[in-house]
């Protein structure tokens, strides 16, 4: 990893980004630049493919983001000078920025990749992954190679059931809604619709995506979250049971993980392709959140709500409450809770 990062960015092999920038051939036109990072002789190779209508694609390579972008910026600056357009100063433009590596959403994901703890010169913007601070795994026999092969991926069944009562969110001016099950915060009782709208506006500052100690990627609290707070909505495409069954078979044939959540007896939310980050919340036998089917403005929605106070950096999880299956269809649970049932179903 020593050569695959700088103080400002990490350079993951396989990264690709599409950028629209000024043309190298015409001062008043723009064209498309496909940026990518590959590995060559143990070092990163930065490439830019110039795609402009009426011209053949041009491939530029360099050993650094700045080096390869300078091959674009210098001709662009010359064309702008020739046409009298506002002057461009390439020396002040950073290659990491032009590659898109410093975009907050990209940085959050890159900082959660395996091996980033070896980036000694990089300054983390969102803090090191919580997994990095965990103790090393203990091998009872003293040798990792002699241990049984760990199960690294568990495909989620196509239906996650919330197991909670359907609630109704009261809109401004509407009649009071019956609240059953887990209580909401005082603010939510006073104005149910306002807390939902607030959650929709602020959920990006509530959570972040990172590697999970439970399974694959997980969702973590980006700040302290109080009990009975709407954290995030489980979103996706609402489909009927028949469509869900067909799509499940299609996803399995494509070797995809399946992310679906049942709303009621007839409808399912499919988050496999068009879902949000809530689909990455892992199961736990000692959850800090609950999943609830809520009715808001005549639409059924699935809300993830905290059932206790959650500290910043803590992984979000809830009980999937799968139906019990026979031994041949059991799914092992890796939540690590004291009261872990060992099986998710």
Helix content: 10-25%
Spatial strand order of the main sheet: 1-2-3-4
Number of strands: 15
Q: Number of helical segments?
A: 6
Sheet with most strands? 4 strands, antiparallel
Mean pLDDT: 78
* Helix and strand run: EEEEHHHEHHEEEEHEEEEEE
**Which regions have little confidence, pLDDT < 50, spanning 5+ residues?**
129-190
CATH architecture annotation of one domain = 2-Layer Sandwich
CATH topology of one domain: Double Stranded RNA Binding Domain
Percent in strands: 15-25%
SSE arrangement:
Blueprint: E1 16-22, E2 30-40, E3 43-51, E4 58-62, H1 65-83, H2 95-98, H3 104-110, E5 167-169, H4 186-190, H5 192-206, E6 207-211, E7 217-221, E8 230-234, E9 237-240, H6 241-253, E10 260-262, E11 267-270, E12 282-283, E13 289-296, E14 299-306, E15 317-318
Parallel strand pairs: 5-13, 12-15
Antiparallel strand pairs: 1-2, 2-3, 3-4, 6-7, 8-14, 9-11, 10-11, 13-14
């Amino acid at each position: 990893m020593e050569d695959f990062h700088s103080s400002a960015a990490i350079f993951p092999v396989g990264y690709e980004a599409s950028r629209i920038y000024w043309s190298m051939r015409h001062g008043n036109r723009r064209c498309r630049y496909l940026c990518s990072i590959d590995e060559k002789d143990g070092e990163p190779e930065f490439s830019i493919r110039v795609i402009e209508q009426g011209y053949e694609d041009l491939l530029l390579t360099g050993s650094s983001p700045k080096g390869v972008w300078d091959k674009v910026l210098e001709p662009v600056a010359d064309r702008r000078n020739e046409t009298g357009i506002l002057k461009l100063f390439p020396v002040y433009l950073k290659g990491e920025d032009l590659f898109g590596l410093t975009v907050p959403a990209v940085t959050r994901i890159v900082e959660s990749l395996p091996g980033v703890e070896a980036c000694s010169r990089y300054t983390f913007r969102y803090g090191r992954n919580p997994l990095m601070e965990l103790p090393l795994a203990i091998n009872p026999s003293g040798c990792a190679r002699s241990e049984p092969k760990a199960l690294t991926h568990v495909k989620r069944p196509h239906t996650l059931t919330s197991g909670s009562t359907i609630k109704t969110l009261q809109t401004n001016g509407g009649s009071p809604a019956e609240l059953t099950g887990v209580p909401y915060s005082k603010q939510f009782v006073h104005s149910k619709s306002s807390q939902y709208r607030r959650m929709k506006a602020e959920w990006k500052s509530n959570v972040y995506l990172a590697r999970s100690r439970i399974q694959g990627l997980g969702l973590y609290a980006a700040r302290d979250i109080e009990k009975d707070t709407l954290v995030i909505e489980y979103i996706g495409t609402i489909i009927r049971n028949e469509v869900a069954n067909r799509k499940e078979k299609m996803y399995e044939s494509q070797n995809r993980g399946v992310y679906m959540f049942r709303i009621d007896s007839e409808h399912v939310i499919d988050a496999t392709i068009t879902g949000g980050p809530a689909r990455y919340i892992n199961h736990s036998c000692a959850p800090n959140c609950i999943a609830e089917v809520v009715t808001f403005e005549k639409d059924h929605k699935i809300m993830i709500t905290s059932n206790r106070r959650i500290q910043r950096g803590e992984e979000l999880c809830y009980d999937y409450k799968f139906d019990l299956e026979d031994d041949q269809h059991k799914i092992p649970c890796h939540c690590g809770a004291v009261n872990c049932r060992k099986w998710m179903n």
